[in-house]
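Recall the central idea of this unit: under ordinary conditions, the amino acid sequence of a chain determines the structure it adopts. In this exercise we apply that idea directly, starting from the sequence alone.
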Amino acid sequence: MHRAARQHLCQLIVTIKVVCLVSCHCTNFTLAVVGRQHIRLRSSSRMVRMAVLSTCALSQWALDYRGNYERIIESIQAAKAAGSRYRCGSELDITGYGCGDHHLEINTLQQAWKVVASLLQHPACSDIMVDVGLPVMHRNIIYNCRLVFCNRKVVLVRPKMMLANDTHMGYQETRWFTAWRKPRVVEELSLPSFITDITGQETVPFGDAIMVARDTLIGIEICEELWNPQSPHVPMGLDGVEIVCNSSASLQELGRTDIVYTMVRSATLKSGGCYLYANQHGCDGYIGHFSGDACISVNGNIVGATPLFSLLPVLVVTATVDLDAIATFRNSLRSRCDISDTAPTYPRVKVDFWVCDMDNSGVRLPSLPQEPSLPSMGQQVLEGAAVWAWDVVRRAGRPGLLLPLDGQLASSVSAIILATMCHKLVQHATDGHTQVVEEVQEIVREIGYVPSDAQELCSRLVCSLHLTQPSDAQHSAQLASELARVIGSNHKTAEVKKGVAALKEAFTSAHNDKEDGTDGEVDGHFDAAAQNANDKFSTSNEVEQALTHLHSRLRMSLIYYFSEAGWWGNGKQRAGQLLVLGSSPAHTASSVKFGDSYGDINLVGSFSNRMLRQALLYARHELNLPILDEILSSASLTTEDAKNEEAREIVAKELLGPDSLSARLLHLNENQSTPHQVEERVKGLFSVWGEQRLQEAGIGGVPRCYLPGIGASSPDRPIIYPPHWSSPFSTIEPWWRSHRKELKRGITEWCQNQSDSQDLE
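Accordingly, the structure predicted from this sequence is:
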């Protein structure tokens, strides 16, 4: 039976059930069979198994046990207010995912169990099944675990079986945790004594098991396990599990939200079922931004999803799920039934709890399928970075931000990100979210202030600064000033010429000192040396570059002096150092160590120039900012620059070496570049990259980047490369010479296809 026919049949069954619920009453006991577990339904006037389930996206903070506890409680209260009987939370939501090496500390484990004790005793946690995440030590091994409890009893502690270790994307869980490699094995975990005092349990099940409620079966998988080819939800579904809960802490990547929805759909498409996906959102003190794309899928359809790029700390999505429709859907898949009949059986952990609401309070209809909206590239760049920036500012306790604004592409995108942040804050304040308003008041240090205008709010939060450069055109200064006026930041312009002149004078004086250190007449030899030194400032490329670097470092020093000297917004000075924003795009890191592209954080450090232009195009239409047209025009790339940028993105995304990159580019640019041109481009890119790695090394306190884009979060690469890359480069030319005939034939075919396409048009 086709998928559409099966879904139509399930919807028809649901409709018939609803009619029966309204028109008749039944008070007999019945038996339902779920997988291999006979489940006794209690006496009720409604015998339909309607489960109300919730998942959430929480803005947790690493090691903020009190704040994390309060957000968990708030999510449980929101779930119960919606009628939910099960709440699924994000990965490690008690400690926060980004604890790093603090996961290895016994104190972290102890504090996490104390939060569990508080949750077990909280009134909001009664009459609902709750799963939370924390690190747990079992047999002197630390595991990344989910703990499920219900009515002051721990039901199951389920360790993570597949760890995320993609270090180039910011995951290194094997550094802290051990994977549970015992499928369908359960052991006994000894509880801390203070937990035993609350629950009366000395030990609880620990391992790979499924939970048997009185009316359904529930399974758990954690984050990475969804993305693995051997996902546990497959055998669990074959063993009769109807509800699978996935607790995740996934960093945002461009375009990943669509993939998340696709994966969650596919988890229930082939074999039916309900899938709850939870994710953390915002910045928890870790290197990246968590996307917060929590959602619920039933039989291959998304039936609920949290909003993306929200500033609210707690987001909860609830759906009503017809479990009988799941059973009908599965039974219609006859080949699945054959496989399920012989599938391995999981250990069962019983819990005396009804997940379905079987009272007579009213008739619940199942949630309907929906199509979540997907953000564009520009929206992801601007809104994701805006949420991350706000989390950093409010949690760092800084009184505002300082943005060096030069009128160029990268710093202009940083400015628009901050403007987007202010627009979001005003929107949340208008919608009556008091917690956001209180956080704004704490930063601007004005009780009673309620933001109502984005530009006015920006004037309180952001100071922009334009510092002149040696080759600075008046047009760039005007663009910076106009952009600052449009977004509302407090803008200032400063000169560094006198500072540069003073440092040049110190250099000249060093050359003019007498060899013996006396105060006699200046020797002609040193006078000539000083003259040569002065001449080099205007004639030598090396000294010209040194002078440019001197300008850049002096600007950086002045930027940090401004950030520490005080705040000038609205005539009021605020104590505290401003957060300095660097603006250096991916793969174009400045070769000036400690230069003016340096900062406390970098909002554009994971984006290529192509992505930044898309962000400005999006902002141009969404925010109606004509000034961006001029910035985009001045930031246009040459054809050669565009090709180099394309090559850099491929290297970052596909992790290719010089020879592999050459082959890749030859296929991508067959009609535009000769093999020799591709070879020279690749050699140039890798040579420059090697030089930049040395410049980047040894910088203390490297600025944190907002990381949804491309490239490694903390590249594990050498800092000193062979200057000529002789061995890798030596294989490029022989390769394309040996494939010359194939390449020529491919170019001919491509040109013919292009000609045919133009004829059709």
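DSSP finds 25 helices and 25 strands in the chain.
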